[in-house]
Design brief:
Elements: H1 2-9, H2 17-37, H3 39-60, H4 72-87, H5 89-101, H6 104-109, H7 116-144, H8 152-180, H9 186-198, H10 211-218, H11 221-233, H12 243-246, H13 248-272
Length: 276
């Protein structure tokens, strides 16, 4: 039985590209059905970035300043959008490890279907959830006084950069979930996400940080996306003159693309090697 399952798992294209698309969409619908059965988990994930935005904008915003001047709420909202894309990593990892522990992925591997469709379906569903999260955070930010001042094309470009970062984080989350294998180990990875997120320019400009920490923040991939998104929205940004700050748009594309190039093959390879 194991040999048959492994042979089927290696049949990447049991039919053709159309079959792969159908299998991927089937896995996406599976995630939608699971959300419908457990809406509380989805609502909680959507509530968290809203809570962070309200807390920082209303409770701490009055004491925060922006380098070069400007409204702190307009500085904050793009940073929170970036963190919203990053913090979903744990949800993806938890879902993957839960399916591993219950043997769900093994059952899928035994079926005559494109094996990577399981991972793609998971990624598409999480990406669509991220679109909803973006819209909610933007709506709450608008209610708190945030505005975008650029063109519509620039605003769409900012959303595109955010979703690109999210896709990269999803690929990393899927791979890490397959590696750690158990939900209880997700917490260890989650603890590492927070320092990376907070050593960025999401909440404060690197110029306001100690020299060494500011340098780390400037080269943080999340800082690149946050700076580029602020520029595209026409919001107040960082006042740095470093290469990273001046080429934030380039880095906002480069970092996620590099993560995708590395994480996607690793996730697919790890999935194929399960239960060998």
């Amino acid at each position: 039985m194991t040999d048959v399952r492994e042979d089927r798992a290696h049949e990447e294209t049991p039919g053709d590209a159309a079959r792969w698309v159908i299998d991927s969409w089937t896995m996406t619908r599976r995630e939608f059905a699971r959300w419908a059965r457990n809406p509380a988990g989805v609502l909680l994930a959507l509530f968290f970035p809203v809570m962070m935005l309200v807390m920082f904008a209303l409770f701490l915003g009055g004491s925060m300043t922006v380098a070069g001047g400007g409204d702190y709420t307009e500085f904050l909202v793009p940073g929170l959008l970036v963190l919203t894309m990053a913090f979903g990593l744990e949800g993806t990892m938890t879902a993957i490890t839960r399916d591993l522990g219950r043997g769900v992925l093994d059952r899928f591997r035994s079926l005559p279907m494109a094996p990577t469709a399981v991972l793609v379906g998971r990624g598409i569903a999480d990406l669509l959830e991220s679109v909803v999260a973006l819209l909610i955070v933007l709506a709450v930010g608008f209610a708190l006084g945030w505005r975008w001042h650029g063109t519509l094309s620039a605003a769409l470009g900012a959303v595109g950069l955010l979703l690109l970062l999210r896709a990269a984080m999803l690929a990393c989350g899927i791979w890490l979930g397959l590696v750690v294998g158990r939900p209880e180990l997700v917490m260890a990875v989650q603890i590492l996400v927070w320092p990376v997120a907070f050593t960025s320019s999401a909440f404060a400009s690197p110029e306001s940080m100690p020299g060494w920490l500011g340098a780390v923040a400037e080269w943080n991939p999340m800082s690149a996306t946050a700076t580029a998104v602020r520029d595209l929205f026409g919001n107040p940004g960082v006042a740095g003159t470093s290469w990273a700050a001046e080429h934030a748009l380039f880095l906002a594309v480069l970092w996620p693309v590099l993560l995708l190039v590395v994480a996607c093959p690793m996730a697919a390879g790890r999935f194929r090697s399960l239960s060998r």
